[in-house]
Amino acid sequence: MPNAIAFLVFYTWPLVVYIIFRKQPLVPAIVWSMLLGYIMIPARMGFDLPAVPTITKYELTSLSVGLMAWLKIRAERQALGFPTAAGTRQRTATWGRKSRARVILGILLVLLIIAPMLTVFNNADPIIAGPTFIPGLRPYDALSTIGAALINILPFLLGLWLLKTPESHVTILKVMCIALMAYSLLALWEVRMSPQLNRMLYGFTTSSFLQHMRAGGFRPLVFMDHGLSLGILLSMTILATGALWRHLKAGVGKSGPWLFCLCWLIMTLVLAKSVGALVIALALLPFILLTGVRAQLLLCAILAVVVLLYPMLRGAGYIPTEEIHAFSLERSAERAQSLQFRFDHEDSLLAKANEKPLLGWGSWGRNGIFDKITGEALSVTDGVWIIIIGTSGWLGYIANFGLLTVPILLLALRRRTLDISLATAGLAVVLTANLVDLLPNSALRPLTWLIAGALAGRYIHASEALRQPHVGKAVEVSDPKDVSEPPSPQASIRRPRTLNKQPAQASKTDPNEDPPPRKRRRCV
Questions:
Q1: Is pLDDT above 90 for 397?
Q2: Band of the pLDDT at 1, cuts 50, 70, 90?
Q3: What DSSP string runs through 48-99?
Q4: Contact, 180 vs 233, CB < 8 A?
Q5: CA distance between the termini of the chain
Q6: Looking at per-residue confidence, does 14 or 117 come out higher?
Q7: Spatial distance between the Cα atoms of 168 and 34, rounded to a whole number of angstroms
Q8: Looking at the predicted structure, is the pLDDT value of residue 111 above 80?
Q9: Inter-axis angle of helices 256-272 and 227-247, to 10 degrees?
Q10: What CA–CA distance (Å, rounded) separates 166 from 149?
């Protein structure tokens, strides 16, 4: 049961976000608020409102950051450099029609909102298994699912609109490194003393204590819902720190302290005993440290395609589950048993999802498997992919994972023409690590959506900058506000220079008079 401190932190978090936005510029305020809400607000608690899903720490963080960002932009629009309405119309008319990336992302966003509504209308019948009775979905549930989709996609939109520059991507990498360096001290304390901080501060535990006893020690979780979530966050931060070190080593700034942070975080993840997260970090880190932008984006694109098509590959038997289990069995019988347990449940859940492949079974546990006599639940859902495809079908899966993978694919396809920095490529690797972890686990959080939106915004901004025509010559202005106004046509027209010098006595004539025409020699 949460104590008074847990309720105080939870319900006053919007005030904390307000203070962060008052003290920090817009971009750092967004990243700090999103990340601190993820790692500091107590998990497994929330409150219900009519026609909206349960507001947990993730929904609370997204809504608070979105509201404060809107208020800050509205109050400081001119100071933040946002164009006026006239400037936006002029730029739209100049650039012409929308890019294909905007159309693709727009279709996926619309599909993300429409798919839950269609799922509700397709699941009006109840599910009865012995004493277990799950009622059919009602139009009221459609409002709740649409509200959940809008809240979940809010960080993506913030990243798309406000974190589209290379400088903002460097800010994301720095904030992740600094925050997790401080958080690692708490994690190392729990490695030695056992996962007790959430119980000591907030009065309850978020997961089973037995799940965090590993290799004669403990796997930390601090204030997160599970130790696996902390493990993949440490893995992502290791990759982010490596990308930041590589970016600064190229001549942008001092890189030595960040190399120390990289070594420290690797040590923390090793001691945290999250083997899956450690494998992902060690597999992707050499690409960040040793390869260029094109190779990094190409690797991310290959892995993104595998993640996007994983249900199809899994159902067709192209994923070597038996070989993976045998490889794991050679190293740890306990981990191999856990892995086989997941594979077996994924097979049964995927078989049920194929009964309604397009729209899925809906929420309230309808996608699970129950004993027909006792009504006992016979399935356990771990991976995000099997949860989404079971509840929302292929439409929901394509909408969600399309928005997460399409920015990576677009950047990889245009890697030769767009000016992509090492920071942006490193951020794509960070997102790819999270996507790979979504196959066995369920760590799809607002930070994931924020990074995906930042990459999508970078692609749109860079590609449309190439398409923008240059009108006339650059005009030097004294007031920065005049930059948003288009140059006048006369600015690009030069007065004709006098080709023939006038005699000395002709200097008294009118200076505005046109010079006499130059005689042309006729060639015979």
A1: yes
A2: confident
A3: --TTS--B-HHHHHHHHHHHHHHHHHHHSTTTTTPPPHHHHHHHHHHH-SPP
A4: yes
A5: 105
A6: 14
A7: 14
A8: yes
A9: 160
A10: 28
| Of 209, 208, 202, residue with least CA distance to 223 | 202
**pLDDT tens digit sequence for 6-54:** 999 999 999 999 999 999 999 999 999 999 999 999 988 888 777 677 8
Residue with tokens 């650059």: 474
The C-alpha atoms of residue 236 and residue 433 are separated, in whole angstroms, by 6
191 phi/psi in degrees, rounded to 5? -60, -35
Q: Please give the sequence-ordered ranges of beta strands (E in DSSP) within 354-444, or none if there are none.
A: none
Strand partners, 128: 133
CA 228/CA 441 separation, integer angstroms:
8
pLDDT in tens, 244-278: 999 998 876 687 889 999 999 999 999 998 888 99
The share of the chain scoring above pLDDT 70, in percent, equals: 84
DSSP reduced 3-state for 243 = helix
Q: Yes or no: say if 222 and 187 are a contact pair by the CB < 8 Å rule.
A: yes
Q: One-letter amino acid identity for 302?
A: I
Q: Rounded to the nearest 5 degrees, what angle is found at the Cα of 139, between the Cα atoms of 137 and 142?
A: 80
Greater confidence (26 vs 88) lies with 26
Q: How far apart are CA 234 and CA 239, in angstroms?
A: 9
Q: Are 176 and 35 in contact (CB under 8 A)?
A: yes
- The kind and range of the H/E element at 5 are helix 4-11
**Where on the phi/psi map is residue 387: left (φ > 0), alpha (ψ -120 to 50), or beta?**
alpha
CA 86 from centroid of its chain's CA atoms: 31
